[in-house]
Write a structure and sequence with these properties.
There is one protein chain. With about 100 residues, the protein is an alpha+beta fold. The chain has one domain. The chain has 2 helices and 4 strands. The protein has a 4-stranded antiparallel β-sheet with strand order 1-4-3-2. The longest helix has 21 residues. It is globular, with a radius of gyration of 21 Å. The protein starts with a strand and ends in a 5-residue tail after the last helix.
């Protein structure tokens, strides 16, 4: 999870975060994994990971499922050209260089 905060916690800090939506409430135990530099408006980006749930793990799973389904539906509606498959590397490019 990425958040932006004015008083960002330090890397390694453990936090409890409670979120609520129409599906219910979830309390996450999180750890700060990365902290960016402060911006001109005194905000800092923080990368966090979930280390456990105090409650609502099932609520979280349903929330993620709803958003993944919505994202897949949006992608299906988009009119994107298929990408070209990557060219296979030549045998020369796979050989070790000697010099």
């Amino acid at each position: 999870m990425f958040i932006v905060a004015e008083n960002a916690p330090e890397v390694g800090s453990q936090l409890k975060v409670t979120l609520e939506d129409e599906g219910g409430e979830v309390t996450l135990n999180m750890e700060v994994m990365w902290k960016g530099a402060k911006t001109a408006d005194n905000k800092t980006g923080v990368g966090m990971r979930i280390v456990g749930f105090d409650k609502g793990g099932d609520v979280y799973e349903r929330f993620i499922g709803r958003h993944l389904k919505a994202s897949a539906a949006d992608k299906a509606k988009a009119s994107l050209r298929p990408s070209k498959p990557a060219a296979a590397p030549s045998s020369d490019s796979m050989s070790p260089k000697r010099g």
